[in-house]
Task: structure prediction
Amino acid sequence: MLAARIRPRASQFRNFLTPLRTYSAAAEKSYEYIKVSTPRAGVGLIELHRPKALNALFTPLIHELNTALKTFDRNPSIGAMVITGSPKAFAAGADIKEMSTKTFAEAYGDDFIESWSELPNTIKKPVIAAVNGHALGGGCELAMMCDIMYVSEKANLGQPEIKLGVIPGAGGSQRLTRAIGKSKAMELILTGRNFSGREAYDWGLAAKCFATAEECLEGALGTAETVASYSRIAVKACKEVVNKSQDLGIREGVEYERRVFHGLFGSEDQKVGMSAFAKKEKAVWTHR
Result:
């Protein structure tokens, strides 16, 4: 398959999105398994693109995804990112063909799928998942790695690894349990039962649920645009302290939050924001 040239243009959602315009000079790079664009001011959009495989995840796609995420993360004109798939599939799972013949020595010795965790471990800017269609196994795990998950009602999520004789391997057992509780997560993982986008929202796994795939992507882009309109320094700090809450007890977490809060008084944007508020003016952020 020849690599497709990346251009900021409409994708499979082109009939439903507002007209795409280029707001920043995204790195000109050829990708084979993803599409990259900048459809809103300050927003980077990454679309998984293996249509014949329902966007099944495998190492070459993950490497491209990591490259695109890091490129946007370093781009000063980008304030937030959105990851999506197609209306039919966010990512229908991990590619079984890549995994089925691996031995323990190969999987363990080569740290198989460790690279799949670069998103939650290294990306500093907020990432929103717009989940439509199938998001199973690794696809569900990828969505949960993002900072915010939006879903359409008919999205189909789940961790069905038990049916393959294995367990979730990219954080599914950990993130799902933290989000919805031990009992419900245990039931889903032990039975391999799928669940809908509506259920994901009702259980607190997803932040918003939309009637259609088009509304889901539009909602994610709109939220990303809002986030990107604020101080990059403050946004980065917000993501840091919320993530830290997952590692610390409430007392330690509040103390950590307070130290970061104090630290922001050394930023230019703290002065800009508070001065603009006092004068009833719109803040013009310096991102410093």
Notes: The radius of gyration is 19 Å. The CA atoms of residues 55 and 211 lie 22 Å apart. Residues 59-74 form the longest helix (16 residues).
